[in-house]
Amino acid sequence: MSLPRLSLVLLLIGIGGSPSVVQGQVPDSVAQASDSTDGGMSAVARRVAGAFSEGNANRLLKPSADRIEISLFGARTFYSSAQALYVLREFFRRHTPRRFVVGDVMETGTSCFVRGEYEQGRVGRPLQVYVRLDRPEGKAPWHLREVRIEDSSD
Hints:
The protein has helices spanning 3-13, 28-31, 43-54, 57-61, 81-94, and strands at 20-23, 37-38, 41-42, 64-72, 75-80, 97-108, 111-120, 127-134, 143-151. It has a single domain, classed as Nuclear Transport Factor 2, Chain: A, CATH 3.10.450.50. By secondary structure, it is an alpha+beta fold.
């Protein structure tokens, strides 16, 4: 296991907490919320959860870094934000969302990590999702930097 991957796994394991479940359509007020903390889950975590539960690649990518790393079932590639939009749209088309359960959220300065389970519309094992975002120069909002989706058995 590579050092960055091991670090992410160790960070996410140490977080704990009760999972949050997001399913169905998210109200417009949440979709337009800033990336500040509101209630039990930060707005950036709600944005990620809402994007996955809706299968909305646009929402997940707004805003995003210039280059986004996407790893789907072990195949890792860097994409421009325009290319990433097509890759994620195709993922959501092939793996129709049923719901997304947020497992862990960790914000540390200019980095944010969200781990969750993506349940597909068809019956099957949930997929493990890891999302990394950052704040360029420590300023809001959070920019998508990496999406990793793996089978639960991996």
